[in-house]
Specification:
Elements: H1 3-16, H2 19-30, H3 35-42, H4 46-58, E1 62-67, E2 70-75, H5 77-88, H6 102-110, H7 124-135, E3 143-145, H8 146-154, H9 160-169, E4 173-176, E5 179-182
Antiparallel strand pairs: 1-2, 3-5, 4-5
Helix pairs in contact: 3-4, 6-7, 8-9
Length: 191
């Protein structure tokens, strides 16, 4: 949902959370009314009614028509219907953040925000998660000389020799004559 729609919905719910404004919308849905009439029906002072009407006008839910010295207020049913449609459209539903996966938690524990690896996990299962993250730094089909593999790994951790061996040992990368390449995921041997 775009931020502008979200803000409009939040403003709508904030406005409608007030009992006086809700009752006012109900009265205006019947027919147009003046501030004086609304004040009498709702047992409110005219300045209070004017304040509530200003909130509803700002949302586009109320229209105003001048007739002589009297201003007539009416509910804009089309605007209310559009607001309901925006609320009920499946694509407009508020996004619920996905639960963080176990792998995401492992990476959060071992990888700094700047992309450096805090340490190589001792647990084989956690190490596999880190290796999957690291092998993603290499492109499929590309060939890398050992010095380039070391340079890529050292951007994330100082011990390129250990991590290079781990990537080859897990079947994530292959090596021949000091040239490395990424292997298809089907060939990976993760513990």
């Amino acid at each position: 949902m775009p931020e502008s729609h979200l803000q409009a919905l939040l403003a709508f719910f904030k406005a409608m959370s007030n009992e006086s404004r809700l009752r006012m919308v109900g009265l205006l849905s019947e027919r147009e009314r003046s501030v004086q009439e609304l004040a009498e029906l709702l047992d409110l002072k005219e300045p209070t009614v004017s304040h509530h009407l200003a909130v509803l006008k700002e949302l586009g839910l109320v229209t105003v028509r001048a007739a002589g010295t009297t201003r007539w207020h009416a509910l804009d049913a089309d605007a209310l219907e559009a607001m309901n449609r925006a609320l009920l459209e499946p694509t407009a539903a508020l996004a619920v953040p996905a639960a963080e996966s176990w792998e995401d938690k492992v990476l959060a524990n071992f990888v700094e925000p700047d992309g450096t690896l805090k340490l190589i996990p001792a647990s084989r299962r956690k190490r596999s998660v880190v290796l999957k993250w690291l092998v993603a730094k290499f492109q499929d089909g590309a060939r890398y000389p050992e010095a380039e593999v070391n340079a890529v790994i050292q951007r994330h951790h100082w011990d390129s020799a250990t991590l290079r061996r781990e990537l080859v040992g897990a079947g994530m990368m292959a090596r021949r004559d000091n040239v490395y390449w990424r292997m298809p995921q089907a060939d990976w041997r993760l513990g």
